[in-house]
Design a protein that fits this description.
Layout (H helix, E strand, L loop, with lengths): L12 H9 L1 H16 L5 H14 L3 H13 L4 H15 L1 H15 L2
């Protein structure tokens, strides 16, 4: 998450509160995210989908929402985002994948 958000006011409340309370740590965390993002050949849309997949796999509803929100802003098609949840079925299981699908749809349906 830190690879693209520098302004703590753009963060969900818990992360924003942390960034405001510990700005030096947040700056280092953001710098790490940027370095990781720039450290390889993967294109931006694929990076977003990988990050969404990691969020799905860890069952982090907040991170799924964050990556879906940004993906939609970046022009990623809703069906592409849903496909990430479908691809997760054999790995994390049907119930967990359906939870992720519902989190993805939370933002697609807005």
């Amino acid at each position: 998450m830190a690879d693209e958000i520098d302004d703590p006011t753009e963060l969900p409340s818990t992360a924003g509160d942390f960034a405001e309370s510990y700005p030096e740590i947040w700056e280092e965390y953001a710098a790490l995210g940027k370095a990781c993002s720039a450290g390889g050949p993967i294109d931006d849309e694929t990076k977003r989908l990988v990050k969404l997949a990691v969020a799905v796999g860890t069952q982090s509803e907040g991170a799924v929402h964050s990556h879906v929100r940004r993906a939609l802003e970046e022009g990623v098609e809703p069906e592409t985002l849903r496909h990430v949840a479908v691809l997760s079925i054999p790995t994390i299981g049907f119930p967990q994948a359906m939870a992720a699908m519902s989190w993805i749809d939370d933002l697609i349906d807005e």
